[in-house]
Design brief:
Helix 3 packs parallel to helix 7. By secondary structure, the protein is an alpha/beta fold. It has a six-stranded mixed β-sheet with strand order 6-7-8-3-9-10, sandwiched between helices. The chain has a four-stranded antiparallel β-sheet with strand order 2-1-4-5, covered by helices on one side. The protein has one domain: 3-Layer(aba) Sandwich (Rossmann fold).
Length: about 240
């Protein structure tokens, strides 16, 4: 059984059709890249999968269940996590407390009211911070981190919820070449924990660790397959006039 199944997904904003019958399948522990030019519908597809937008037509199934109309919170509880393109950490809080809050999302109200979770979760918080090269910045406010470090912090927060599928929308946007390299190294071990659907414009970055690629253009799937299949796809070359 596929982890995520998207069938005939359509999203219209008035007369503008952003998605026109998109099909997408993602398996367990699979890294799947979503590529295409600006305006091709990549972010809209991600938002429909996460529940930030409701599709006009089509079906989204997660672990065999129809979640097409489910609220984002229900999808999160089922194991879906989304990191938007624009960083959404809590800038006034410390790096430590950002991750702590993400972990506390799974705690009972009683535990939170009795303040039992802060110390109990310390080991897990520090493990995530060490993993994303942020342990030495744990007492700093998130606002003073570099752009790349804020992106890593948000990915750590998303992983704190132990998702089965993590959606990343352009995680390397605005990063330096070195930060992009490190980001690739940080993402690669996640294949042992969850599946990944990633939107990215940096083709060199995305094809280094993705198992499959799906190419969108004007809201439709041009081709989908392994990285080598997409690199040799005549349809993709005709659309982009390049070899991916």
């Amino acid at each position: 059984m596929a982890l995520l199944e998207v069938r005939g997904l359509t999203k219209a904003f008035g007369s503008l059709v952003a998605l026109g019958g998109v099909d997408l399948t993602i398996g367990e522990n699979e890294f799947h890249g979503l590529i295409g030019p600006n305006g091709s519908g990549k972010s809209t597809l991600m938002r429909c999968v996460a529940g930030a937008e409701l599709p006009s037509a089509g079906i989204v199934r997660f672990v065999g269940r129809d979640i097409t109309a489910a609220a984002p919170a229900k999808r999160a509880r089922a194991g879906l996590a989304l990191k938007f393109q624009i960083t959404s950490v809590f800038p006034a809080l410390t790096v430590y407390d950002n991750v702590l809050l993400a972990l506390q999302a799974g705690s009972s109200t009683t535990s939170l009211l009795l303040s039992r979770t802060r110390e109990a979760l310390r080991e897990r918080v520090m493990h995530l911070l060490e993993r994303f090269h942020l342990a030495q910045r744990c007492a700093d406010r998130a606002a003073v981190l570099s752009h790349g470090q804020q992106q890593w912090l948000e990915i750590a927060m998303a992983l704190a919820c132990t998702p089965r599928l993590l959606l990343l929308d352009e995680p390397t946007a605005g990063m330096s070449l070195e930060e992009r390299r490190i980001t690739g190294e940080l993402l690669t071990p996640m294949k042992n924990e969850c599946s990944l659907l990633i939107v990215e414009h940096d083709l060199d970055f995305i094809r280094n660790f993705c198992d499959f690629l799906t190419v969108l253009d004007q809201g439709e799937v041009i081709d989908s397959g392994t990285v080598s299949q997409i690199q040799n796809s005549r349809e993709v070359r005709e659309v982009y006039h390049i070899c991916v």
